[in-house]
Design goal:
85% helix; 92 residues; elongated
């Protein structure tokens, strides 16, 4: 299993854990004033979701840049959409 798949799977599980902690927070608030550890329990999964989500957000842009650079390094001629992206990158 490569890093991208591992991080994507961890992100899914973290989202489940985050949802459960938020639900538990609301349930305990309905009955009484919840203890501090219940109130702050969603923050750890949320913090980890931030980093895994940012990684997955940036990944397509980084991999696209690598594939364009790899094509130029190998010496093959880019075709179609690749050529348009390269020309657009050089103009802007």
């Amino acid at each position: 299993m490569d890093w991208s798949k591992w991080i994507r799977q961890a992100h899914r599980w973290l989202s489940i854990i985050f949802t459960i902690t938020v639900a538990a927070n609301f349930v305990t608030m309905a009955f009484e004033q919840p203890p501090a550890w219940v109130v702050y329990s969603p923050l750890l999964p949320l913090f980890l979701l931030l980093f895994s989500g940012l990684y997955m957000f940036v990944l397509p842009y980084v991999s696209k840049g690598r594939s364009v650079q790899r094509g130029q390094r190998i010496g093959r001629e880019p075709h179609g959409q690749e050529r348009a992206e390269i020309e657009q990158a050089h103009q802007g």
